[in-house]
C-alpha cells in the first residue's frame, strides 16, 4: 500500500489532522483537514517565501525551472508521470490510454519555447516582469504580478490546473490552489516535480483540497490573496464572486459550449471518412467534459454523404472509439440525464420524422441525435452529440445566437474561401476560437483563453514617464 | 368502451379482487398485447425498441414507457374524449406540457386503490376518523391524489372525517381545534396529506406552540416526499416532528408513493408490519398487480439488491395507457421491498463544459 499526499504545503507548516481515503487497491490518498487558521498560516508563509525567493528570480530563471520540471514529465519512465498515469484513470474514471496520451500531449505545450512564446504573445518584452524597461513611445515600464493568487480549480479535465499554476509562477506570485475532490492529484504531483528542480520555488505554492462551498475557508483564502481565479460552473463562480471584494483582481473561467461546422467540401468522397473519424475523436476525448469539446455540429448537405449519413457514420465511429477507449463510468445523475434526453428524442421521433436517434444499445456509451433542420443544441455530455442539417452553412450560423454567452471553440471544416466570411460571423456571435476538426481539444499555448488575455489580465503596470526621465537628468549633480 | 376494452378492464378487476385464474405474467402479457394493438404511439415506441407481442413472453420484457411519454404522446387505448376521468401531473400551469393519464372507467383505479389502502394503512381497523389536509376531488378533479383522498374518506372514513383544505387554502386554525377535540375525546385520528402540506402546518403549530397528545391508534399519512438530495434527512426530521407535535410514533406514520402515470400505489410497510409482527419494516411495497424493478441507469438492466438504479413499475391497473412505465426516481431493492431515494437531479459537468441541465437552469 503506497500512501500519497493529495495536498502540497510548505515544509514549515504542520497539518493538524490527516485522514485517508482508499482509492483503487494499491494506493491511499492523504487529505489534510483544512481550517481557516491553517489557510491564513499557509498563505502568510508562501507569501513570505515569495518575497524571499521567487520575487528575486528573473522570468528567464523561472521559465528554465518550469521547463526542467516539464522535461521530467516528458520522460515516460519518470516516477511521478507513472503515478499520474496509474492514478488519474482511477480518480476520474477516464480511460487509462486516453489519459496517458492526452497528458503527455498537454505537458508538451509547456516546453521552454512554448513558455517563451506565451510570454511574448502578451508582453512586448517579458523582461518588464523583472525590471523597468524602455518603451518605444518613451519612458519606461515595469509589470507586477499579484503578490499572491488564489486558484479555484474545477473538476476533472486533468491538466488545466497546471496551466494556471504556471501562469502564477511566471507572474512571480505565491500560489494557493484549491483542488476539486474530483481531481486533487495532478497539481500536487506537478508541484512535487518543481520541488525536485528547485525546493525553494515549490515553497511558494500550496495545494489544498476541500469541498467547494465551505465559505469560511474560501473567505480566508480570498482575503489572503491579491487575485482570485475561478474555474467552474456558473454556480461556483457566483458563490466565489460574492466573497471577493471589488478591490481584488477577479478572473473567472465559467462553463462554455463548443460547436462544429462542417461544410460540404469536407464531405467529398476522398475526405468524408477522415472528417467523421476526427470529429468522433473531438467528441470522445475526455468525454466532452472539456469545454473545448463539441456538443453539436451543423453539417452541410450537397456532397458525397448527406448530413443524416454523417450522423450514422459518426455513430459507427463513436461505437468504434468506445470499443477502443471506453467512456468513464458515470454517476446515476449523469446517466439519467442521458437517458432522459434519449427518451425525449425517441418519443419525439414517434411524432416527428425529422428527428432520429443513433445510440449505443446496451448502455449510454454514446448517442447521436440527428435533426433534419438547422440549429445548435446543448448536450448532457459524456459522448452525446447533436447533428443538425444545413442547406447552406452561412445562412444558419445565427442559430447559435441563443448560446452566445457560452460560445467557446468552433471546429471548422470548409473550403478556404469560406473561412473569412464564416470567421467574421462567428467572431461577431462571440465565438472565441476557430480550429480544425480533430484538434478541438488541444488549444495552443498563448491562445486567448475564453477570448481574453492570460497573464495580462492579472498584472498591473508602473510607468515612468518620458518627461520625468528627461527632467531628472537636470538634477544630476554633474549636469552641464 | 369497445367490447375488448370492457373484457380487458374486467379481467384486471377480477385479478385485483383475487378472483382471477391467470397469474401476473399471463395477464401482463395479455394486457401488453391489448395495449400494443390499441395504443398506437405506444406501439410505435415498442417497435423502436424491437419489442412486439411476438417477442414478449415475460412481463419484464415489456418495454417501459418513460414518464415523459405521458407529456409528449397521447397514450390511451380508448378514445381520450370519452374518458371518465383524466389525471394530470402538477408542476406547470400549461396543460400542453402536463402528463396525462386517461381513465375510461374509474372502477379499476378505485379497485386498485381500495384494497391496498385497507391492507397497508388500516390493517387494524375498518374505518377511522380522517382529517384531510390537501385538496379533495371537488377542488381538483384532475388530480389523482385528490381522488385518492376523497376515496379514502368515502370508503374508510367515519362520519366525523373532514377536509380542511378549501379554496382559501389549508385552514390551520380549524385543524388545531379539531385535533384538540379528538384529543379531548380520546378518539384516534388519521391525518392525510401531501408531505409539504405538513411542513406549513408544523411551522404554524410550532409558532403557536401547539402540541397534541393524539390517542393511541392515531396515524399520519403523507405522500409526495421532498425533492432533492436532502430528502432522507428531511423525512427523518419530519417524522421526528410528528412524534413531538402529534405524539405519533414513526411506526404509525406511512408514506404512500403514487404517480399520475400509474393506477396503483405503493406504501411503507410500517403500520402493517408493526400490526402483524411487532417489527417495523420501512421499505415500500405494492399490491400483487404491481411489480417494481430497479434498473441500472446506464444499461437499464435489473440490478442486484442494494444497488441503486432507476425505478420501473409494471402496473396491471394501468390498463388504458401503458402497464410498464420508467420513472425518473432512483431507488434500491431490499429483502422486504424497495427504498426510494428521490428524483434524479440534473447533472453537472465535472469539467469546464456546460451540460444541458445547467444551461436550462441558467436560462430559467
Automatic annotation (TrEMBL), chain A:
Keyword Repressor: no
An example Gene Ontology molecular-function term: long-chain-fatty-acyl-CoA reductase activity
Chaperone in keyword set: no
Catalytic activity: a long-chain fatty aldehyde + NADP(+) + CoA = a long-chain fatty acyl-CoA + NADPH + H(+)
EC numbers, comma separated: 1.2.1.50
InterPro entries found in the cross-reference section: CoA_reduct_LuxC
GO biological process, one term: bioluminescence
CDD domains reported for this sequence: ALDH_Acyl-CoA-Red_LuxC (cd07080)
Keyword tags: NADP, Oxidoreductase
Family: Belongs to the LuxC family.
Protein name per Swiss-Prot or TrEMBL: Acyl-CoA reductase
TrEMBL record, chain B:
Pfam family, one: LuxE
GO BP annotations listed: bioluminescence
Annotated InterPro entries: ANL_N_sf, LuxE
Protein name per its UniProtKB record: Coenzyme F390 synthetase
MF annotations from Gene Ontology: long-chain fatty acid--protein ligase activity
Acyl-protein synthetase LuxE domain: residues covered: 4-358
Naturally occurring in which organism (per UniProt): Mesobacillus subterraneus
Amino acid at each position: 500500500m503506497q500512501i500519497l499526499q493529495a495536498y502540497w504545503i510548505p515544509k514549515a507548516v504542520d497539518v493538524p489532522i490527516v485522514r485517508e481515503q482508499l482509492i483503487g487497491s494499491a494506493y491511499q490518498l492523504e487529505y489534510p483537514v483544512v481550517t481557516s487558521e491553517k489557510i491564513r498560516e499557509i498563505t502568510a508563509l508562501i507569501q513570505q517565501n515569495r518575497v524571499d525567493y521567487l520575487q528575486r528570480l528573473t522570468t528567464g530563471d523561472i521559465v528554465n525551472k518550469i521547463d526542467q520540471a516539464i522535461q521530467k514529465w516528458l520522460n515516460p519512465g519518470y516516477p511521478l508521470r507513472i503515478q499520474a498515469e496509474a492514478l488519474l484513470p482511477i480518480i476520474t474514471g477516464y480511460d487509462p490510454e486516453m489519459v496517458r496520451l492526452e497528458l503527455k500531449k498537454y505537458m508538451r505545450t509547456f516546453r521552454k519555447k512554448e513558455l517563451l512564446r506565451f510570454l511574448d504573445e502578451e508582453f512586448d518584452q517579458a523582461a518588464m516582469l523583472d525590471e523597468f524597461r524602455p518603451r518605444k513611445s518613451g519612458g519606461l515600464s515595469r509589470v507586477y504580478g499579484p503578490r499572491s493568487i488564489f486558484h479555484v480549480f474545477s473538476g476533472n479535465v486533468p491538466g488545466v490546473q497546471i496551466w494556471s499554476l504556471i501562469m502564477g509562477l511566471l507572474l512571480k506570485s505565491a500560489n494557493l490552489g484549491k483542488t476539486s475532490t474530483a481531481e486533487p492529484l495532478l497539481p500536487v504531483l506537478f508541484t512535487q516535480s518543481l520541488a525536485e528542480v528547485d525546493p525553494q520555488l515549490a515553497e511558494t505554492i500550496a495545494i489544498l483540497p476541500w469541498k467547494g462551498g465551505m465559505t469560511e475557508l474560501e473567505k480566508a483564502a480570498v482575503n489572503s490573496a491579491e487575485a482570485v481565479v475561478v474555474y467552474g460552473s456558473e454556480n461556483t463562480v457566483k458563490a466565489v464572486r460574492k466573497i471577493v471584494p471589488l478591490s481584488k483582481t477577479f478572473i473567472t473561467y465559467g462553463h462554455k459550449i463548443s460547436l462544429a461546422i462542417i461544410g460540404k467540401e469536407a464531405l467529398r468522397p476522398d475526405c468524408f471518412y477522415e472528417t467523421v473519424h476526427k470529429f468522433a475523436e473531438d467528441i470522445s476525448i475526455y468525454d466532452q467534459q472539456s469545454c473545448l469539446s463539441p456538443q453539436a455540429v451543423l453539417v452541410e448537405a450537397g456532397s458525397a454523404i448527406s448530413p443524416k449519413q454523417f450522423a450514422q457514420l459518426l455513430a459507427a465511429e463513436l461505437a468504434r472509439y468506445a470499443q477502443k477507449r471506453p467512456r468513464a463510468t458515470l454517476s446515476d445523475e449523469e446517466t439519467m440525464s442521458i437517458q432522459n434526453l434519449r427518451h425525449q428524442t425517441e418519443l419525439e421521433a414517434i411524432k416527428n420524422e425529422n428527428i432520429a436517434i443513433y445510440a449505443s444499445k446496451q448502455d449510454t456509451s454514446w448517442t447521436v441525435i440527428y435533426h433534419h433542420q438547422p440549429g445548435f443544441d446543448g448536450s448532457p455530455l459524456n459522448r452525446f452529440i447533436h447533428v443538425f442539417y444545413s442547406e447552406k452553412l452561412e445562412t444558419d450560423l445565427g442559430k447559435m445566437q441563443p448560446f452566445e454567452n457560452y460560445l467557446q471553440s468552433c471546429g471548422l471544416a470548409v473550403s478556404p474561401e469560406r473561412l473569412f466570411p464564416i470567421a467574421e460571423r462567428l467572431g461577431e456571435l462571440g465565438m472565441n476560437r476557430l480550429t480544425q476538426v480533430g484538434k478541438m481539444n488541444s488549444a495552443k499555448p498563448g491562445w486567448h483563453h475564453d477570448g481574453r488575455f492570460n497573464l495580462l489580465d492579472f498584472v498591473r503596470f508602473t510607468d515612468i514617464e518620458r518627461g520625468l526621465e528627461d527632467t531628472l537628468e537636470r538634477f544630476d549633480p554633474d549636469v552641464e | 368502451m369497445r367490447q375488448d376494452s370492457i373484457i380487458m378492464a374486467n379481467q384486471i378487476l377480477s385479478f385485483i379482487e383475487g378472483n382471477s385464474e391467470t397469474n401476473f405474467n399471463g395477464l401482463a402479457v395479455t394486457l401488453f398485447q391489448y395495449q400494443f394493438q390499441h395504443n398506437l404511439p405506444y406501439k410505435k415506441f415498442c417497435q423502436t425498441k424491437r419489442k412486439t407481442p411476438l417477442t414478449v413472453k415475460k412481463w419484464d420484457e415489456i418495454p417501459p414507457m418513460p414518464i415523459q411519454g405521458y407529456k409528449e404522446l397521447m397514450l390511451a387505448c380508448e378514445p381520450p374524449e370519452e374518458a371518465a376521468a383524466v389525471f394530470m401531473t402538477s408542476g406547470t400551469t400549461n396543460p400542453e406540457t402536463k402528463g396525462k393519464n386517461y381513465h375510461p372507467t374509474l372502477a379499476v383505479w378505485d379497485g386498485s386503490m381500495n384494497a391496498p389502502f385497507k391492507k397497508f394503512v388500516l390493517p387494524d381497523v375498518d374505518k377511522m376518523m380522517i382529517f384531510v389536509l390537501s385538496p379533495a376531488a371537488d377542488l381538483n378533479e384532475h388530480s389523482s391524489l385528490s381522488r385518492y383522498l376523497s376515496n379514502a374518506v368515502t370508503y374508510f372514513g367515519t362520519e366525523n372525517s373532514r377536509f380542511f383544505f378549501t379554496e382559501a387554502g389549508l385552514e390551520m386554525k380549524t385543524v388545531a381545534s379539531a385535533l384538540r377535540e379528538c384529543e379531548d375525546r380520546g378518539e384516534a385520528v388519521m391525518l392525510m396529506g401531501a408531505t409539504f402540506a405538513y411542513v406549513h402546518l408544523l411551522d404554524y403549530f410550532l409558532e403557536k406552540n401547539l402540541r397534541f397528545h393524539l390517542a393511541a391508534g392515531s396515524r399520519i399519512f403523507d405522500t409526495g416526499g421532498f425533492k432533492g438530495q436532502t430528502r432522507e434527512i428531511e423525512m427523518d426530521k419530519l417524522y421526528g416532528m410528528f412524534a413531538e407535535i402529534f405524539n405519533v410514533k414513526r411506526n404509525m406514520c406511512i408514506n404512500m408513493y403514487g404517480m399520475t402515470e400509474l393506477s396503483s400505489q405503493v406504501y411503507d410497510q410500517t403500520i402493517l408490519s408493526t400490526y402483524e409482527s411487532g417489527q417495523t419494516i420501512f421499505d415500500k411495497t405494492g399490491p400483487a398487480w404491481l411489480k417494481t424493478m430497479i434498473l441500472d441507469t446506464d444499461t437499464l438492466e435489473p440490478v442486484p439488491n442494494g444497488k441503486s438504479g432507476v425505478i420501473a413499475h409494471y402496473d396491471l391497473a394501468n390498463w388504458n395507457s401503458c402497464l410498464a412505465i420508467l420513472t425518473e426516481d432512483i431507488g434500491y431493492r431490499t429483502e422486504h421491498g424497495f427504498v426510494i431515494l428521490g428524483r434524479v437531479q440534473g447533472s453537472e459537468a465535472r469539467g469546464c463544459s456546460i451540460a444541458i441541465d445547467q444551461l436550462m437552469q441558467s436560462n430559467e
